[in-house]
């Protein structure tokens, strides 16, 4: 099969090509619950750029060369002898974690904290290819209203945004405020999730006017351009107190300090983006009683819930489609901020 393969790291992202489009062996059924999926769409994520930078080399045991791509959807091509609920031709979306389901975390539904797992695209070959091997336990059948290429990025970008915003929505009341910092690939989904799950007013913050325009289309109530005065603007919009929830999809640079400043006392700051460092005096935590909450990719049930919202037309993905052979162009466009929404590779 054809695949876009990462052969070496590029710590400064300076090369004109990050991956090589080449022939590789087809994945094969190795266990009774394995499933081969013919890829209909593979999302291009900023995490992929971090993988190329080598940021994940100490957090996964993957050996180069390997195939990235952890946001995948397509059609069942082949199933292992133990698979009974899927058949060739079924349209499916893949939860990003492949687990056995035996450990306590899995039995509680928290597969992302499984004692043993495979994460295609992170620590195993992923979906920047024509075919992907995954597990039956990770698959969700798609309704006829949703095509694989249109929903693939939901498996990480959408699911991570959904998990964080669902946590926030459970505590947000009508008349309260939620701030979304960074309304690009994840943030524009987060705005829609908040508007679907709660009645709080949503304030979108971004340095890109185009991203803010997208946030407005997604239902944001207020738009704040990050031009150095964003904290003051958010405080003014919230009566000087800050927001009850701040969801930070940037997680680096000044966004962290600003996000905490935008969070009111007894409010919650949700970290989704990463790459920066969080520093706060303990006395400030005590006197403000702010909560700082980390967010990993969501659970299988949460992906089912997100697909229900998509099926109902309450959440939409803004996507830019690229051929699998043009993976380098998609990665470079993402790196240079040319993609508003999510990029999807199509074999």
From TrEMBL:
Protein name per UniProt: alcohol dehydrogenase
EC number: 1.1.1.1
SMART domains: PKS_ER
Required co-factors: Zn(2+)
InterPro entries reported for this sequence: ADH-like_C (IPR013149), ADH-like_N (IPR013154), ADH_Zn_CS (IPR002328), ER (IPR020843), GroES-like_sf (IPR011032), NAD(P)-bd_dom_sf (IPR036291)
Keyword Metal-binding: yes
GO molecular function: alcohol dehydrogenase (NAD+) activity; zinc ion binding
PROSITE patterns per UniProt: ADH_ZINC
Organism in which the protein naturally occurs: Ciceribacter selenitireducens ATCC BAA-1503
Annotated keywords: Metal-binding, Oxidoreductase, Zinc
Domain named Enoyl reductase (ER): residues: 11-345
Annotated PANTHER family: ALCOHOL DEHYDROGENASE 1-RELATED, VACUOLAR PROTEIN SORTING-ASSOCIATED PROTEIN 11
Protein family according to the UniProt entry: Belongs to the zinc-containing alcohol dehydrogenase family.
